[in-house]
Every structure is written in structure tokens, then in C-alpha cells.
UniProtKB/TrEMBL annotation:
Keyword terms, alphabetized: Aminopeptidase, Hydrolase, Protease
GO molecular function annotation: aminopeptidase activity
Entry-linked Pfam families: Abhydrolase_1
Protein's name according to its UniProt entry: Dipeptidyl aminopeptidase/acylaminoacyl-peptidase related protein
Superkingdom to which the source organism belongs: Bacteria
Family stated for the protein in its record: Belongs to the AB hydrolase superfamily. FUS2 hydrolase family.
Record flagged with keyword Ubl conjugation: no
Sequence ranges assigned to domain AB hydrolase-1 in this UniProt record: 153-288
Length: 365
């Protein structure tokens, strides 16, 4: 889930102010944007004549790409790697300005992928993942631990607008603890949606089984799933359906899947679920609402919540604990925590990664 992005495209200042509420500085930094660049984007886009948010992000992304190219030519590969990561993160943030899959959004997202491929060429533990299915290719990224034969894997899922390598730091926290991390762009997300045309629906949830199959093929025998924002609801649905999942983390998700009033939040849901019919979307959302009377999560459950989350009220996620057995759930609260705990990203990722390591029987690193 994401905060409303555009409430008035007719007023440039209101457009940018709404976008800045959705794409906070802490969110940008969590996605991998250097702090100074996050400040520059936010400052520049509020100065008349109000340069485009995507253009501002792309301008700085190109600067980092230039730095990376020069560093590669000089053999400074670590510098190049950091610069490609920054470039990719800025392009990821640039595409957040668009709710539907118009050409400019796809252009920015494809640019994100190209920067990440350059990054991957310099990091042997990071690689793209493409899984063919009868409905089209599923996309994602893999971060491998130093152990060539990891016994555990966690699937990391984004929400309605931020996906894949936007959660690279979470994946690195897992890999640093000996866990294979798969940054899944599931149905309704990323290139799985924009290239393959695979939208989310109840039947499409089964596609996450392909990511779990990949983890098992890599040797993992203990599996977890970590969903962020609306992806937390998706993670809960998958965990209730696939008995292979031994541990699930829900970070900033609603248990009740309802259609919001804000136009742009609705647009993100329409794009995610692949429909423009409101009645159809309402019926789909009803099917996605979790019900302890019908659904059960056999594994352990971790719920992360923030007291300063404008999208999911404090305490709203506690209902998820009814889906699992007594004593198998844990709730961690940050009193000042923003949505998905952007403002305590390092602590959040370390805590969740440690929890997964404990639940999936990974020796302490």
C-alpha cells in the first residue's frame, strides 16, 4: 500500500506536495537513495517552475550512472557498485509518480533494471531472477549469502507501488545472516505486471509458489515470506495457502482489504489488480480480506507496526495474530514508526532478519 500520490494534477504545487507525502525522505533513503539526493529532489521539485519529479530523479540517477561509468573505467569497482545502486534507487523513486503503467513509468522502471544489471555485474551475490510460467515470466532479484548451500530462504514482497530491489537492504540483512533472499515482483508488481501483464487476483497468488520452488531448487529447506505495506496482506494470504512457509513477517499491512476514498490510492489498486471496474475490484478485495474462521497460518508470525503510520492505524495489524496458533506470533511496535518503519530501517531490517534466522534454524552469523 502507498500514500496517495496525486490529488490535483492541475496544481503543480499540490501535485508535488501530495507526492512528497507519499514518497517521504525516509522512504527514499530506505530504497537506497543517498540522503543528499533525497533532499535535492524534494527541494528542487518545490521550486518554480516545478520541475517534474520523475525528471528530477532521473537527472540525479544519470549523474550517478556517469560516476559509475568513470569508476568502472578506472577500476574502482566498489565506487561503481555504490553509484549504480544509487542510480537504480532514484529511478525507482521516479516511477512512483505514476499509478498506471504509462510509457514513462515503464521507461523509468526499465532504467532501474538496467542500472541493477550493471550493479549485479559487480556483485557476485546479486542477480536477476526470471521464472517462466504459463501466464508469462515472473521477475525478481536474488541476494545470496556467503554459504553456497543455504538451508533457508525468505521471499520479500513490496506493495502497490514500490517493488523488487527497492527492498535490497532487507534482502542484504537476510543474506548477511545466511538466508537466501528473493526480492519477488509478484503478480500486479514491477516487470511481472508491466512486461508480462500478470495482474493480481486470488488465483494469481499461486505464482508465489514458483518463487518458493526456486528457493527449494537452490537447496533451501526452510522457507519464509516477508511482506511490506500491501504486500504484507499478500504475504499473509500466501502463508495461509502454502504449508511450506514456516515464518511470515507482516510489515504495515491492512487485514481488511477495502477500497479507499483517495483517487490515486484507488488507481494503484486498479493497476495492481488489473481492472478498471469498481464492482469487480470491490469483490476482489473482499476475497483478499483475511478471516481467521477460514484461514490459518501454520508457521510463526511477526507483525511490525508504527505509531506514526498514516495508512495503517496502530493496533490494526494485531488481528493478524488470530490467524496463527497461540504463542506463535510476535508484535513489535515503534512508537514513532512511519509506514513500514521507514524511519528505523536499519533496526527494522536487522530485527526481522534475526527473527527469520531464529525461526528457520539458521546458525547465528
Amino acid at each position: 500500500m502507498a500514500a496517495p500520490v496525486i490529488e490535483s494534477a492541475d496544481d503543480p504545487r499540490k501535485f508535488v506536495e501530495a507526492l512528497q507525502r507519499a514518497v517521504t525522505m525516509t522512504r527514499m533513503v530506505d530504497y537506497g537513495v543517498p540522503l543528499g539526493d533525497a533532499v535535492r529532489v524534494r527541494t528542487a521539485t518545490l521550486e518554480e517552475p516545478f520541475p517534474s519529479w520523475p525528471d528530477a530523479c532521473e537527472h540525479l540517477a544519470n549523474r550517478h550512472a556517469h560516476i559509475a561509468g568513470e569508476a568502472e573505467a578506472a577500476g574502482r569497482l566498489l565506487t561503481a557498485r555504490y553509484a549504480w545502486r544509487a542510480s537504480a534507487a532514484l529511478l525507482m523513486c521516479g516511477q512512483l509518480a505514476f499509478n498506471f503503467d504509462e510509457p514513462r513509468k515503464l521507461e523509468l522502471y526499465e532504467g532501474t533494471r538496467q542500472a541493477l544489471l550493471r550493479y549485479a555485474a559487480l556483485d557476485e551475490r546479486f542477480s536477476e531472477l526470471v521464472i517462466p510460467t504459463k501466464d508469462g515470466d515472473l521477475y525478481g532479484w536474488v541476494v545470496r549469502p556467503s554459504d553456497p548451500e543455504p538451508q533457508a530462504a525468505v521471499i520479500v514482497i513490496g506493495g502497490l507501488s514500490g517493488w523488487g530491489a527497492g527492498f535490497l537492504d532487507m534482502a542484504r540483512a537476510l543474506a548477511d545472516r545466511g538466508i537466501l533472499a528473493i526480492l519477488a515482483e509478484g503478480p500486479g508488481q514491477g516487470l511481472t505486471r508491466m512486461r508480462s501483464g500478470i495482474a493480481m487476483n486470488i488465483d494469481a497468488l499461486s505464482h508465489f509458489g514458483a518463487f518458493l520452488d526456486h528457493a527449494e531448487a537452490a537447496g533451501a529447506r526452510h522457507l519464509g515470506i516477508w511482506g511490506n505495506s500491501w504486500g504484507g496482506l499478500i504475504a499473509a494470504q500466501v502463508a495461509a495457502r502454502d504449508p511450506r512457509i514456516q515464518a511470515a513477517c507482516i510489515n504495515g499491512a491492512p487485514m481488511l482489504a477495502a477500497l479507499p476514498e483517495q483517487r490515486t490510492a484507488r488507481e494503484q489498486l486498479f493497476a495492481f489488480y488489473g481492472t478498471t471496474d469498481e464492482a469487480e475490484l470491490r469483490a476482489t478485495l473482499e476475497a483478499f480480506t483475511m478471516d481467521p474462521a477460514r484461514q490459518h497460518i501454520a508457521g510463526s508470525l511477526l507483525v511490525l507496526e508504527g505509531g506514526n503510520d498514516p495508512l495503517v492505524p496502530l493496533g490494526a495489524q494485531h488481528a493478524f495474530t488470530a490467524l496463527t496458533d497461540a504463542g506463535k506470533s510476535r508484535i513489535v511496535t515503534w512508537a514513532d514508526g512511519e509506514h513500514t518503519i521507514y524511519n528505523h530501517a536499519q533496526e527494522r531490517s536487522a530485527l526481522a532478519a534475526d527473527w527469520f534466522a531464529e525461526q528457520l534454524a539458521v546458525p547465528a552469523q
